[in-house]
Amino acid sequence: MAANRRTLIQQLAALAQLPVTTTVTIERNQLSWTGELQPSPLSDIYTVHISYATGQRAPTVTVLRPELGGAGVESLPHVYTQDHLCLYYPWQWTDDKLITRMIVPWASEWLFHYEVWKATGTWHGGGHEPTTGTQAA
Amino acid sequence: MLDTTSELISRLLRDTVVELDIPLELHQAATREYERVGNWLAANADGHAGWVVHPQGSFLLNTVVLPSGSDEYDVDTVCRREIRKESTTQAKLKHEVGDVLSEYVVAHRHLADGPTGLKERRRCWTLGYPYSLRLHLDVLPAIPNTKASPTAILVTDRELRAWQFSDPLAFAAWFKRQAEAEAVAKRLRLAEAARTAPEAIPEWEVKTTLHRVVQVLKLHRNEHFRDDLEARPASILVTTLAAHAYRGEQHLYEAVLEAVQLMPHYVQQGPDGLLVPNPVEPRENFADRWRHHPQLAARFFGWLEQLGEDLRDAESHRGLDKVAGRLSESFGQRPVEKAVGRLGDTYRQTRENGRLGFAATSGLLSTTGAIPVRNHDFYGGGSQP
Fold this sequence. Notes:
heterodimer; A: 25% strand; B: alpha+beta; seven-stranded mixed beta sheet; 13 helices; 14 strands
């Protein structure tokens, strides 16, 4: 844990000022954010959820709408179990950082590369390679 | 960088045609080959110096696209025999050129990049090469047209009695003039980026939006008429009308839409039917076939409308995968997928170079986004730490 850890209130205050934010709340020490991201002018608009609890190592990012995957998709690239997005190496996020500055832009970038992956079958976003997702031929 | 749907779809269209454009190495190999044919003919054929081989068509115009369903590029050339019309006939000229070309094949077929064979076609001879070269050379026999410009020629046609008028070098110069200022500016930019002199940039690299418009039109045409080659409009017809309609737009998507809308206005009504005159040799009508087959004109106009609809429809989709799917239907899956992959690489590299920003108002990623996207690596699967 970094020495100057951001509090959930600080994270909420920053997220509340982000125009793409739909809702942001803290309940029982759990931050919950929902926002709408369109990574490129030709991209879909995605409703994304981020949750982050006191003491949690890193925020959890999920896509609520539209449903990821679809016909022919067997597994998604760069996701953890339950399709939480894998956005960074563990050491690239520390709790002195703001979700608005790091996690939200990375989520948008993930969505961009997800669409490229759906079109091409190849992950062009870079990063660690063990699960790049599979689509039926 | 790619802040609007028009900019983004223009990038996808450009990279789709880049995928099917002739690569520089092949362009250079083809140039070496027609020069070798020309030099050999000049040194070995009857009348010696009276033989000249030069490129024509899309290879000369810089608007090549890989033919649909093929892995080989067509390289069009003219074999100009410096003799008078009165001293030969169409059949004689065609056979003389065919004879020297077969001697050329015999003399060079032992070479790794030498020709493998020669075939006669309606208007030209086709030299074939080993598969690895990915090209064939069409050689059109011609003689000077002494009653017109110094570059004007008369060409043979097995199915027509009269010599056909043509002037491919003057046409190429005319085509170039339609986007001249843009080409000059582009050449300067490329030279500046490469820290070299403008004249050191090969012509092949200097592609204006007009070049790309013609390539988009040809690619869509190839797919649209894939199963009906007889009805397919000729490249020269498409190129001429597109060049007339070109207004110097910078975004390819809008330039193509404008071309599609304006091209029909440059088809003229002549006394014997529709006319698309060769702008440098008005006796040559590029729409000649429409006189005997008026339904082909209707098919042509229908195709232009379809192209406009296809592009607008693709632009209205949301989801790069859905846009790509729609473009694939019109332009072929492989080049479109490659273009989308290239776009993905561009975004990744922009972020790696620290230039990708995030717009807090929309989530849009671009170089103008206010929040810098910090460098990071998408991680693998498993359980989240």
